[in-house]
Amino acid sequence: MSTSVAASAAPSSSAVAERRTVALSGLRGAIARNMAQGWQAPRVAHSVDVDLSRVETLRAERAAAGEKLSLNTLVIHAVSRALRSHPRLNALMREKEIELVDDINIGIAVALDDGLMVPVVRQADTKPLAALAAEARQLAEGARTGALTGGAYQRGTFTVTNLGGTRVDRFSPVINPPQVAILGVGRTRQQAVVKDGSVVAAAVANLTLVFDHRAVDGYPAALFLGEVARRLEQAEFD
């Protein structure tokens, strides 16, 4: 009696999963190189929760008057003013030195479908709130539509990145080299806080400062973050 052995059937082409890749070239490649360089820095993160009750009241008042203010604009305002008295965080890391920069130029991280762009508000600390808000909106829209020139992304000295439109409470961003610090802003959420001995609900957001420890030590970085938090909690804007 003979025995036959059935050959294994080769999988059909439709059963083979399609291999999908994203080339590390163009914008994605530039982001990859920049983030790899930023990750090499001896990074330290400080984090603080900020009561935004007064900020939210201010935003509501301005909205009623027809002026829209984003939280990101208010954070940029607070950061730019705080950097005046904390110049070690408004600096660039060079090969053998730290360059302290007089102009305070704040990069705004803008998420695109295929990457991240960081246009820069130049001399942000000299601009009143309304002008700062208008310029930040124009830069963000220009980045999304590809309307900005290369110069709009140059000469940044500090970066603010905001995930407030997501469900992320806090995160630790990567420094944008050669800058020495970056501030991450989480979503605004309702949280129980103690005020005048009573527990009440308040709008709270987390700020996380990531800094290069070669350029800045922990204590002065903490003082800077504390000033940013104070300015926001007291709605101290000019």
UniProtKB/TrEMBL annotation:
2-oxoacid dehydrogenase acyltransferase catalytic domain mapped to chain residues: 18-236
Keywords associated with the record: Acyltransferase, Transferase
InterPro entries: 2-oxoacid_DH_actylTfrase, 2-oxoacid_DH_E2_comp, CAT-like_dom_sf
EC number(s) recorded for this UniProt protein: 2.3.1.-
Required co-factors: (R)-lipoate
SUPFAM superfamilies, alphabetized: CoA-dependent acyltransferases (SSF52777)
Cited Pfam families: 2-oxoacid_dh
Molecular functions per Gene Ontology: acyltransferase activity
Record protein name field: Dihydrolipoamide acetyltransferase family protein
Organism of derivation: Thauera mechernichensis
